[in-house]
Amino acid sequence: MGISRISINQIETGKTMPILKTANDIANALGVCIY
After folding, report:
1. Which of 3, 9, 11, 18 has the smallest number of Cβ neighbours within 10 A?
2. Does residue 34 contact residue 8 with C-beta atoms inside 8 Å?
3. pTM for this model (two decimals)
4. How is the chain split into domains, by residue range?
5. Which pLDDT tens digit goes with each residue over 1-35?
6. How far apart are CA 7 and CA 21, in angstroms?
7. CA distance 32 to 14
8. Between vectors from CA 17 to CA 6 and to CA 29, what angle results, nearest 5°?
9. Cβ–Cβ < 8 Å for 3, 18
10. According to the model, what pLDDT value does residue 4 have?
């Protein structure tokens, strides 16, 4: 995966606002299309 577990944890805990690019990177890493 191209994203770190820290980034995922920050998004899951709501400590940071996920940016569209970050959300897209996560979707790509999980093999899911968000569009």
Report:
1. 9
2. no
3. 0.34
4. 1-35
5. 566 776 777 666 655 555 667 777 887 888 765 55
6. 12
7. 21
8. 50
9. no
10. 73
Q: Which residue has the tokens 């569009």?
A: 35
Q: What angle do CA 10, 15, 18 make, to 5 degrees?
A: 65
Q: Among all chains, which residue has been given the structure tokens 């690019």?
A: 21
CB-based contact 26:4 (threshold 8 Å): no
Residues 6+ apart with CB under 8 A from 13: none
**What's at 27, amino acid-wise?**
A
Residue written as tokens 């577990």?
A: 5
What six digits make up the tokens of 6?
A: 């820290």
